[in-house]
Specification:
- This protein is mainly alpha-helical.
- The chain is 42% helix and 8% strand.
- The chain is globular, with a radius of gyration of 14 Å.
- It starts with 10 loop residues before the first helix and ends with a helix.
């Protein structure tokens, strides 16, 4: 990060230009958590490590994107990679989606 200009690295370069997660059905409300027993993962990229740290407590995919400051597409690719490699475990999605809550989440994501 550059204090004056923001990110120095384009978000898509973090995921090597990929735009689609391998797990295409990643619902923004899917709860994910770091797999128990993962204490010192050998992950060279700080964005991956940051997401693992965030997910010590279960979070939704949308929350991970918001808390990490990454665009949703980038966060989904990283989450998908971490799921594929067994670092994260998926939980459940919200059974009922309150339309008012969805509008608040959408507006919050737009502001990012």
């Amino acid at each position: 990060m550059d204090d004056a200009g923001g990110r120095l690295v384009r978000p898509f370069s973090m995921i090597r230009g990929r735009v689609r997660p391998s797990q295409l059905d990643l619902d923004p409300f899917l709860m994910i958590a770091t797999r128990p027993g993962i204490t010192d993962p050998q992950i060279p990229d700080q964005e991956y490590a940051r997401i693992l740290e965030l997910c010590r407590e279960p979070l939704s995919v949308a929350e991970v994107a918001a808390y990490s400051g990454l665009p949703m597409t980038v966060a989904k690719v990283i989450i998908s990679d971490l799921l594929d490699n067994g670092y994260l475990t998926p939980g459940s999605t919200a059974p009922e989606r309150d339309p008012d809550l969805l509008m608040l989440v959408r507006e919050g994501l737009r502001r990012l």
